[in-house]
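Lab meeting prep.
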Amino acid sequence: SIRFQKHKIDPYDLSKKLGDLYSHMIFKYGFVHGDPHSGNIIVRKLPNEKDVTIYLLDHGLYGVSVSLIII
């Protein structure tokens, strides 16, 4: 994507971080974000930083996964 290139964001790194974020939320804490789509995610990378910061929005709908084994 042109935006990724412009801000020097590696899409594969971003995908891994999003996967880690959701896996942590679900399998470690037992919460499931009820509306995960691109409009509910902010990706921020400051010019002097190497890594991106990911913000999840719209915390109105969560599920609690009591049937999962929490690590």
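Slide two material, second protein:
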Amino acid sequence: TANDRTGLLVDITIALNELKIPLRALNAKTTKNMLCLINTTLEIDSQDKLHRAVEKIKSIKEVIGVTRTNK
């Protein structure tokens, strides 16, 4: 979840690319309140890489939170 802004998805995909994490699927939509809800499917092979991805995405401007929904 993030406050919507120009370049948000670019920043997220760049962050994942820097960590060498393959992005398998992405779905994003903006609510009436200008919140961007982003669902991704990532190919992550370790807990460490998952933790680094979550922390990197959390550090992006306007990102409010990151939640893992499936295992």
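Talking points for slide two:
The chain has a mean pLDDT of 95.
Residues 47-58 form the longest helix (12 residues).
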